[in-house]
Design brief:
6-stranded mixed sheet; 854 residues; alpha/beta; Helix Hairpins
Length: 854
């Protein structure tokens, strides 16, 4: 994988206005800049785009402070094909969302062709397949971190084997061995369980002869019990049939008794009806005997009714005339009262108008005073509003200064903490990026901190002076506003009073024209009161009185007629009854004859049913004894059934036990085969545990990898030493007592002979360190199926003396042709001239990090 182009937006210290970093044409590059300026952030951007991984554990920590969206776009070339990866992270309130896109450049269409999968997980898996490595493989192969050049060579032989095992990912075989151990233990447990199960089956099969004897006895007992059960059931059925027949007769008896009760009630009802008809016939005949007396009283009633109707007609004719007379008299009284009310209102209006005319001079003087006072207060109101606007502007300025002061305090606190860390640490290590510093770098960084702290103190002092001036001006304005508010409280009341005075003046001017009209109205009303009024009402009243005199009415005679009618009102009903009685007499005679005939029929039917009831009572008398016999026989049948069920259950149990023995015999065969298979499986798992262990496959893989590692290391070491040095990895060491033991020693050969690595130092040891470290990286990449085309070196030049730096630069130049791109990271400015291409990174306050390609 060769970087092609990198675009960062709101990523760590980089904002969204940073131009893309183009790697085209670069081979040996130095990435240089101050500590904390954003050098490592460029590498974090590459790893985050490709694998979603960086130095931090949280994606949100990678987002630039104050932003809610970040994006990294990375183009790279692999096997002659250009790819583009875009990874985004968005924050919306509490929600978080990530996006990942993958595309490949299509030369035919001249554009990007999408390779993204439906999910981020699937797209990431596709990126890993294209690169043929994951994040861990990348950082352990293509990325030489600070202090790791001798991470392999400086360790003990046992630790070297562990490192090599880790690089070769042999830990998976430890997991396989542990899994095989667990499976072997499970298989052994299953073997013990199967052996116990076979013992249980053998014990049960030994009881089979006993089960066969029990089956014969149970078969005979079940047959005898079934015969007794069937005989008892037959007797119960016969008795049940006899009881059912008598029960039906008993039901008929009950129905017959209910019908007899109904017939008795019907006969009694018929006899009561005969008595009622006879009483009605007697009453009709007595009424017909009084026919002449009732007719005479009826004639007197008719004469009294005629007299009452005549007086009622007169009274009805007079009633509307009397009502009209009362209405006209009331209207006449109301007409006079209306004139009196109008005269009172007119006199009051006249008095009010005369009084209002005297207030005109006073109102005009008060209006002039109010106009002058309001002009002064309106001018004060304008000045008051201007002061309030100034107070709002002062508060906004004070808030801005407070925010600036807080920012300065936070920056000062951060600088002081870094300065204290720098002064307290004995090792020359940068407190920001944790990179080693020389003495000169430490003094330079301390001077930068002191200068910036001095600038912050001056800025803080200026802000405090501005805050004091603003506070003083605000206090003066607030005092003036309080005085204005006391004065302006009068403005509203003065405006209301002015409106009232102006309305009163206008009203008084209108009153001058209304005064004469009021005087004329009072005079006219007084004339009407002295003369005639409502002549139409008085004429209508005289006409109504004359018509009432033409209709005389005697109330006493009318009352006497009404009393006579009331006294004889019963005679009218009696007369109607006499007229109906003649018609009812013949009908009642016919009804009485029919009722007497029905009585004879009902009495005959009742006697017949009573005789049938006696017959049924005699037949049903045997039902109780027959039911008792049925219950006794049912008990016998239940006992026979219980005996048969018990015998049948014993028979079924005996059959089931023999069937179970047959099934157990087959099960024993299966369990025996399974036991043998499980024993074999346990043996295989024990063998796999040994094979996956350190003395098995792992040892073979390490043995096979060492020649490859030696070859690659010697190829690089030959270039670094002009062919003078050679390295050899030995896995066996001879013991003084005889025999050998496992080890991993590094033997270096030069023109003086072969010596262990530990006897070398300085530049020669460093060349061996670098050759082995790069060889390990190539081995790891090759094992992952990827080509190591790009090398990132963050080796920390600050830890080296002048000669060490020269050796490191020389080594890098020697191996640069092994890679398409070598990118070296440092914060030491004097080394940047040693590289043909430099990426210089600077961080500006408020603008974030920026880079320049030189």
């Amino acid at each position: 994988m060769i970087p092609y182009k990198l675009r960062l937006q709101n990523f760590l210290s980089y904002r969204d206005d940073v131009p893309p970093l183009d790697f085209t044409g670069m081979h040996l590059v130095c990435l240089v800049g101050g500590n904390g300026h954003g050098k490592s952030a460029l590498l974090d951007g590459i790893t985050w785009a490709l694998w979603g991984r960086a130095r931090t554990t949280s994606d949100d920590e990678l987002m630039h402070v104050g932003c809610d969206e970040m994006q990294v776009e990375f183009e790279f070339v692999l096997n002659g094909q250009r790819y583009n990866v875009v990874r985004k992270r968005l924050k919306r309130g509490r929600s978080r969302r990530s996006e990942l896109e993958l595309a490949v450049w299509d030369e035919a269409s001249g554009g990007w062709q999408a390779l993204s999968e439906p999910s981020i997980r699937a797209t990431q898996a596709r990126i890993n397949r294209i690169l043929r490595m994951d994040y861990e493989t990348f950082v352990n192969s293509a990325f030489l971190k600070q202090g790791e050049a001798d991470a392999f060579t400086s360790k003990s032989p046992a630790e070297r084997k562990d490192i090599l095992a880790s690089i070769l990912n042999l830990s998976q075989y430890d997991a396989y061995a542990e899994k095989a151990k667990e499976l072997a233990k499970e298989a052994e447990s299953e073997v013990q369980f199967l052996k116990a199960r076979l013992d249980e089956i053998d014990e049960e099969l030994a009881r089979r002869p006993q089960y066969e004897e029990a089956l014969q006895a149970a078969t005979l007992a079940e047959s005898q019990a079934n015969a007794r059960r069937l005989e008892a059931d037959k007797a119960v059925a016969e008795l049940r049939l006899a009881v059912r027949d008598l029960a039906a007769k008993q039901a008929s008896l009950k129905e017959l008794e209910q019908r007899i009760e109904e017939e008795v009630r019907a006969l009694e009802e018929t006899r009561r009806a005969i008595s009622a008809t006879q009483a009605d016939l007697q009453a009709v005949r007595e009424l017909l005997a009084q026919r002449e007396d009732i007719a005479e009283m009826y004639r007197r009633l008719q004469a009294a009714q005629d007299e009452e109707r005549r007086w009622a007609d007169v009274l009805e004719a007079r009633r509307p005339l009397e009502e009209e007379q009362r209405r006209l008299e009331q209207a006449l009284r109301e007409a006079r009262a209306q004139i009196e009310r109008e005269l009172a209102v007119a006199r009051k209006t006249l008095a009010d108008l005369q009084k209002r005319m005297t207030a005109i001079p006073h109102l005009q003087s008060r209006a002039a005073d109010l106009q002058k006072a309001m002009a002064e207060l309106e001018a004060l109101e304008q000045a008051h509003n201007e002061r309030r606007e100034r107070v709002v502007a002062l508060k906004a300025e004070q808030e801005r200064l407070a925010q600036e002061k807080a920012r300065l305090e936070e920056e000062g606190r951060s600088l002081r903490e870094r300065r204290e860390i720098l002064l307290e640490g004995e090792a020359s290590t940068c407190p920001v990026c944790r990179q080693p510093l020389g003495e000169e770098g430490r003094r330079h960084l301390q001077a930068e901190y002191d200068g910036r702290l001095s600038e912050l103190r001056e800025a803080f002092k200026r802000i405090r002076e501005e805050e004091k001036a603003l506070a003083k001006e605000e206090q003066a304005l607030k005092q003036a506003l309080k005085r204005d508010e006391l004065e302006l409280k009068r403005l509203g009341s003065l405006r209301r009073e002015q409106a009232q005075v102006e309305a009163q003046i206008a009203e008084t001017e209108r009153a001058q024209t209304e005064l004469q009209a009021a005087q004329a109205q009072v005079a006219a009303l007084e004339d009407r009161m002295r003369g005639e009024y409502a002549p139409e009402i008085q004429a209508a009243l005289a006409e109504v009185s004359a018509r009432l005199d033409a209709l005389p009415y005697d109330a006493a005679a009318h009352r006497q007629a009404r009393e006579t009618v009331a006294k004889l009102r019963e005679v009218e009903r009696r007369q109607a009854e006499v007229e109906q009685a003649a018609k009812r007499e013949a009908a009642l005679v016919e009804t009485l004859a029919a009722q007497q005939a029905r009585e004879a029929r009902e009495a005959e039917r009742l006697q017949s049913d009573r005789e049938r009831r006696q017959e049924l009572i005699a037949e049903v008398a045997e039902l109780a004894s027959l039911q008792e016999a049925l219950e006794r026989q049912r008990a016998v049948a239940d006992d026979a059934l219980a005996e048969w069920e018990s015998a049948h259950a014993q028979l079924v149990a005996a059959q089931q036990k023999l069937q179970a023995c047959a099934e157990l015999a087959e099960t024993r065969k299966q369990q025996a085969r399974l036991l043998q298979q499980t024993r074999e499986k346990a043996a295989r798992y024990r063998h796999l545990r040994e094979a996956f262990g350190p003395r098995g496959v792992q040892a073979l893989i390490i043995e096979s990898a060492l020649p490859e590692l030696e070859t690659e290391a010697n190829r690089l070491l030959a270039r670094l030493s002009d062919g003078r040095m050679n390295v050899r990895l030995e896995t066996q060491r001879e013991l003084k007592s005889g025999g050998t033991r496992e080890t991993l020693d590094i033997i270096i050969s030069d023109e003086l002979g072969s010596r262990p690595y530990e006897l070398y130092s300085g530049g020669e040891a460093f060349r061996a360190d670098l050759a082995l470290r790069v060889a390990l990286s190539r081995l790891l990449a090759r094992r992952a199926g990827a080509a190591l085309q790009t090398l990132f070196i963050d080796e920390g030049f600050g830890t080296q003396d002048a000669q060490g730096r020269e050796n490191l630069i020389e080594a890098i130049h020697m191996i640069k042709d092994e890679f398409a791109l070598v990118l070296v990271i440092t914060h030491i400015d004097e080394l940047k001239e040693q590289f043909p291409v430099r990426i210089e990174v600077v961080k500006e306050d408020g603008a974030g990090s920026r880079y320049t390609v030189v």
